Amino acid sequence: MSLLFLCLGNICRSMLARGIATQIIQEQKLPLIVDGAGISSYHEGESAHPPIIALAKRHGIDLTPFRSKPISQELASRFDCIVAMDESNIRSLRELGVLHPNVCKLGDFGLQGVDIPDPYTYTQEKDLEEVYALIDLGVKNLLNSVHA
């Protein structure tokens, strides 16, 4: 099973989801592959947004090996499921003409369908921690559902 996390720029939410999932996969030795991508190519090749790197580090997760990349049909085709962070990501995916039979939203996994807010402009640690908590719970629920 392989999962591609998707957000706008692939430097905040999808990168954080990938980091959380990678840690769980390694700890539990799950047979899963995860990666991340962004709708936009604006941040292509960049590492995670510095406040997100610091947030992940506080939770024992190292995001520094990851680099942002834009979604493409070729990339999407390599994964069993695309996990978007919000409805806008799903609409944008369709607008880009990227087709995939399994697109879902992270918020659909134990989070009552919420959109994960984009923390790019957040400056308060408590706001970043709230986003972390949503992504962490969603990823745990998602991995439990695909590995059950």
UniProtKB/TrEMBL annotation:
Instruction: Name residues in a coiled coil.
Output: none
What the entry lists under InterPro entries is as follows:
LMW_PTPase, Ptyr_pPase, Ptyr_pPase_sf, Tyr_phospatase_low_mol_wt
**Phosphotyrosine protein phosphatase I domain spans which residues?**
1-145
What's in the keyword line of the UniProt record? Hydrolase, Protein phosphatase
Q: What are its E.C. numbers?
A: 3.1.3.48
Query: Which family does the similarity line name?
Result: Belongs to the low molecular weight phosphotyrosine protein phosphatase family.
Name it.
Answer: protein-tyrosine-phosphatase
Query: Which species expresses this protein natively?
Result: Helicobacter gastrocanis
Species classification: Bacteria, Pseudomonadati, Campylobacterota, Epsilonproteobacteria, Campylobacterales
